[in-house]
TrEMBL record:
<dbReference type="InterPro" id="IPR050317">
    <property type="entry name" value="Plant_Fungal_Acyltransferase"/>
</dbReference>
<dbReference type="GO" id="GO:0016747">
    <property type="term" value="F:acyltransferase activity, transferring groups other than amino-acyl groups"/>
</dbReference>
<keyword id="KW-0012">Acyltransferase</keyword>
<dbReference type="InterPro" id="IPR023213">
    <property type="entry name" value="CAT-like_dom_sf"/>
</dbReference>
<comment type="similarity">
    <text>Belongs to the plant acyltransferase family.</text>
</comment>
<dbReference type="Pfam" id="PF02458">
    <property type="entry name" value="Transferase"/>
</dbReference>
<keyword id="KW-0808">Transferase</keyword>
<protein>
    <submittedName>
        <fullName>Uncharacterized protein LOC105053945</fullName>
    </submittedName>
</protein>
Length: 370
C-alpha cells in the first residue's frame, strides 16, 4: 500500500516564452518566386516533411540565451535577403495552372524563444532524448487546405539551466534540402560572427523577444513537460549518398539514380520496404521538381552503376563546425529528415554554380525496421 505521505515529483517544463517573425532586411524584387513543378497534387506527406537540426552550445562568454536570440534576430534580418527563398511563403501560383510556388521574402522566419527547467547535460544524457528533441525545434505542420498562412522556417533558441543553450532549426523540404540548408547555416553563422566582431550587433540587446508582450497578458505562451511527456520516437532513417557522375555510364535520369539509392537502403541497410516514395529534385536555381513514385519493381532491377555511389556521413557536410560566435563550436549536433512513417522521401541535390564538383548528393529517408 502506498504511503499517504508520498509525493509526486513535479515535471520539468519547457516554456515557450515568445514567438516573433523576423522580416528580411531588404525587400525582394516584385514577382520573385520559385515554381514547384508537381506531377501529382502535393500531398499531406510532403507538406509535413521538414528538416530538423538541433545544435547544442556552451556559453562562450558573458552571454545569455536571450542575447543569442536577439543577435540571431539581427543577423537573420541582415542576411536572409541573400537567400530569400528561406523567408518564402507557399502558395498556388498566380497563373492558376495547378503549379505551386514559393513567394520570396513573403513570410519571414519564425523566431522562438524558450527555456528549459533542466541543464543541457541532463537533457543530452537522457535515454529518451531522441524522442523529445522535437520540443527544441518548433514546428507546426503546413495547413493543406490553406498553406498560405503557414510558416515554413523556424529557429528556436532554448535556454537550459546553467551554462548551455540550443539552437533548433525546422525547415520545410519545399524550401531547402540538407545540402542547401547546411550551406545557409554556414553562411549565416559566418555572417553573425563577423557582425559580432565588428560591433554591428547590440552589445546589450534590449530587443529581447520576451520584452514585447501585451500588458496584462501571460508572461509565457505555453509550456510542455520535458521529462514526462510521452516520447515521439524517430520512426524513419536517412542515408546520404554521393554520386560521382563521372563514373556513371550513360546519362541515367535522376529518377533512376534515386531509385537505386532507395533499393540500396531497403535491401542492405536499416530501412524497411516501402510501396511509395516522394522524389524531390533541387538544383537551387530553377524549378523545384516534386514527383510521386512507386517502389514496385526496385528489387528486380539489375541496373548497376559500378563504384559511382558512396555513403556520406552527416558530419561531412560540415554542420559540426558551425559557430555563431567566435570559436564556439557545438558540443553536440543532431539532424533528422522528418517525413511520413509509411513512405519514402528521396531528395536529389545538385551542386550550386559556386561549386566545382559535379557530384550529386542524394538523401534517402524510409521507415525504420521494427
Amino acid at each position: 500500500m502506498a504511503s499517504s505521505n508520498s509525493t509526486v515529483t513535479p515535471s520539468k517544463l519547457l516554456h515557450i516564452d515568445a514567438i516573433q517573425t523576423v522580416a528580411p532586411g531588404r525587400m525582394a524584387k516584385p514577382g520573385q518566386s520559385r515554381r514547384i513543378s508537381v506531377v501529382a497534387p502535393v500531398g499531406l506527406g510532403i507538406l509535413r516533411s521538414h528538416l530538423r537540426i538541433v545544435l547544442y552550445y556552451k556559453k562562450a562568454r558573458k552571454e545569455s540565451a536571450l542575447d543569442v536570440a536577439a543577435w540571431i534576430k539581427e543577423s537573420l534580418n541582415a542576411m536572409t535577403p541573400d537567400m530569400p527563398v528561406l523567408a518564402g511563403r507557399l502558395r498556388r501560383d498566380s497563373e492558376g495552372d495547378g503549379f505551386w510556388e514559393v513567394k520570396f521574402n513573403d513570410a519571414g522566419v519564425r523566431l522562438v524563444q524558450a527555456s528549459a527547467e533542466m541543464t543541457m547535460s541532463e537533457f543530452l544524457e537522457s535515454e529518451e532524448r531522441d524522442g523529445r528533441e522535437a520540443q527544441l525545434a518548433y514546428w507546426v505542420d503546413v495547413d493543406q487546405e490553406n498553406p498560405y498562412y503557414s510558416a515554413l522556417f523556424y529557429v528556436q533558441v532554448t535556454q537550459f539551466q546553467g551554462d548551455g543553450y540550443s539552437i533548433g532549426i525546422s525547415c520545410s523540404v519545399l524550401l531547402a534540402d540538407p545540402l542547401f540548408l547546411t550551406r545557409f547555416l554556414k553562411f549565416w553563422a559566418q555572417t553573425q560572427t563577423q557582425m559580432l566582431a565588428q560591433g554591428q550587433l547590440s552589445k546589450n540587446p534590449i530587443f529581447h523577444l520576451s520584452n514585447f508582450q501585451r500588458p496584462g497578458g501571460p508572461s509565457r505562451i505555453k509550456f510542455t513537460p520535458l521529462d514526462s511527456t510521452p516520447t515521439k520516437p524517430i520512426t524513419t532513417t536517412t542515408i546520404l549518398f554521393k554520386v560521382a557522375r563521372a563514373r556513371v555510364l550513360g546519362s541515367p535520369s535522376y529518377t533512376k539514380l534515386a531509385t537505386h539509392c532507395l533499393k540500396e537502403v531497403m535491401q542492405k541497410m536499416e530501412g524497411m520496404a516501402v510501396a511509395n516514395f516522394s522524389l524531390i529534385i533541387n538544383d537551387h536555381a530553377g524549378e523545384l521538381k516534386v514527383e510521386s513514385c512507386r517502389a514496385k519493381g526496385l528489387a528486380q532491377s539489375n541496373e548497376t552503376f559500378n563504384d559511382a555511389f558512396s555513403k556520406v556521413w552527416w558530419d561531412e557536410l560540415g554542420i559540426e563546425d558551425i559557430a555563431f560566435s567566435e570559436a564556439n563550436k557545438p558540443v553536440h549536433v543532431s539532424y533528422h529528415v522528418v517525413s511520413p512513417p509509411d513512405e519514402g522521401l528521396v531528395m536529389v541535390m545538385l551542386p550550386s554554380d559556386r561549386e566545382d564538383s559535379l557530384d550529386l548528393i542524394i538523401s534517402t529517408t524510409i521507415p525504420k525496421k521494427i
